[in-house]
Amino acid sequence: MKKIMLFGFAVLLTATNANAANFAVITSPPIFLNVFILVLAFGCILGALSIYKLVKGGNLSKSWQLFVFGFVVLTISQLGYLAQAFEILTLPIFIIPALMVITFGLFLYGIIETKKILG
Fold this sequence. Notes:
This protein is mostly helical. It has one domain. Helices cover about 75% and strands about 0% of the residues. Helix 2 packs antiparallel against helix 3 and helix 3 packs antiparallel against helix 4.
């Protein structure tokens, strides 16, 4: 009992201003779309990783590695957007679009590498 009281007292001493996340934002349709993109991107990471493991050491391994990195950056950008929408994290305004441009560049470079190998 004394340990619980001591822990509670320690928590009260270290407590600062706590702000709750804005969970009412999830009802807006763009947030649903971003959650859907996040889930799909995570699934695409798993699929691209399995394909990368199959072609590892082959000619197409570099392009599939670029696709995996592209999906990882897409997932990070969606997590950042959702954290910003729920008011959990504050990011500079250019971070999310910059991550999307990097995602586009990785996908484009992966497609160019695939075309160069197959064409």
